[in-house]
Amino acid sequence: MNQHTIRPELREWILATARSGQSLGELLRLLKDAGYGGEQSRQMVARVLNLPLSTVLAASKKGFTGQRTRHPEPPRQHVRDHEIRVTLSTDTPVVRLLEHMLTDEECDALIAEAKPQLARSLTVDVDGRHQTDERRTSQGMFFRIGETPLVDRIEQRIAALLDIPVSHGEGLQILHYLPGQEYEPHFDWFDPTQPGFAAVTARGGQRIASVVMYLNTPDEGGGTGFPSMGLTVTALRGSAVYFAYETGDQASLHAGLPVIKGEKWIATKWLRERPYQA
Questions:
Q1: 112-160: per-residue pLDDT in tens?
Q2: Topology of the domain covering 76-272
Q3: How far apart (Å, rounded) are the C-alpha atoms in residues 14 and 32?
Q4: Residue ranges per domain, the chain?
Q5: Is the N or the C terminus of the chain less surrounded, counting Cβ atoms within 10 Å?
Q6: Residue 14 φ/ψ region, left for φ over 0, alpha for ψ in the -120 to 50 degree band, beta for the rest
Q7: What count of other Cβ atoms lies within 10 Å of the Cβ of residue 182?
Q8: Which residues neighbour 244 within 8 Å (Cβ) at sequence distance 6 or greater?
Q9: Rounded to an integer, what distance in angstroms lies between the CA atom of residue 189 and that of residue 137?
C-alpha cells in the first residue's frame, strides 16, 4: 500500500483514535469492524503512527488490547518472599499507599548506585525527548531496565505486584531534592492535544500508572500531594504511593511538595499500556 492511498479523513481518524488513548489492538479491531482487511489495517496504522510494521503485527497476533495494571488491595500483598502492606486505598483517583515496598538496605543501595550519575532532572517534551523543566528543581538520573541486580529485583517486584510485564515500564528514575526544591502540580499521562503526542506514545503507548518509592524520610516536608483529594502522602523510607489514571484524568493531578528541612530521595517507575522502547 502506498502511503498516499490513505484518505486524509481516515488518516485523521487513526490519529485521533490513537490520541484518545486507544491501544493498537483496539484500533485494529475498529478498522476491521469498519470493513478493512487485516493486512491493510496493519499497513495503515504503521504508516500513520510511524510504527514498525512488526510492532503492529505482534499486537494483532496477540490480540493485544493495551494492558492495565492490577490495583493492590488491602490489607497486604505477598510478592514472592516480600510482604507489602496496603494502608490507604482510594478509587477516584486510584491511589494506594504501599508500606514496606523496599527494605532499608535496598533504599540505601539504590541511592549509592544513583549518586555518581546525578544531573539536573529532566522531563519528557512533546517530541519524546528529555528536557529541563522549571517546575522540577531536583537532580536525577535514569537506570536502564535491569541495569543492576538491585534494579532488576525492584522491577520484578513491581511487575509481580501490579501484574504487568517489566517490559511495560520506563527506566527507573532516581530523584534527589534539597530544601526548597519541588515538582509543581502536574499529570503523568501525556496530553493528546500536544503536537508531539503521537511520537512520545509510539514508544509504548500512553502512561497508565506511576509508582513513587521513598528512599529516605525527609526531616520535614517532601510528601506527594493530590490537590483534588486534599491528600498528602508522607514520604517515609521504604514506602511507596501507587496511582493509576486514564488519558485526561484530572483527578490524578499531583505534586512533589517542597522539602522544608533535610533532603528527599525517591525512585519513580512509570508504566505504559504497551511494551516500552527506550
A1: 999 999 985 555 554 555 555 555 568 999 999 999 999 999 999 999 9
A2: Jelly Rolls (2.60.120)
A3: 13
A4: 3-62, 76-272
A5: C
A6: alpha
A7: 19
A8: 68, 69, 71, 93, 94, 208, 209
A9: 20
For residues 213 and 155, what is the distance between their CA atoms, to the nearest angstrom? 12
Residue labelled with grid coordinates 496496603: 86
Cell of 101: 515496598
Peptide bond into 75 cis (omega under 30): yes
Q: Of all residues in the chain, what percent carry a pLDDT higher than 70?
A: 87
6-38: string of b/e by CB count within 10 Å (b at 16+)? beeeeeebbeebbbebbbbbbbbbebeeeebee
Angle value at C-alpha 190, between 246 and 234, nearest 5 degrees: 70
d(CA 167, CA 272): 9
Is the Cβ–Cβ distance between 189 and 277 less than 8 Å?
A: no
Cα distances from 46 to residues 140, 159, 194, in angstroms, run 34, 28, 20
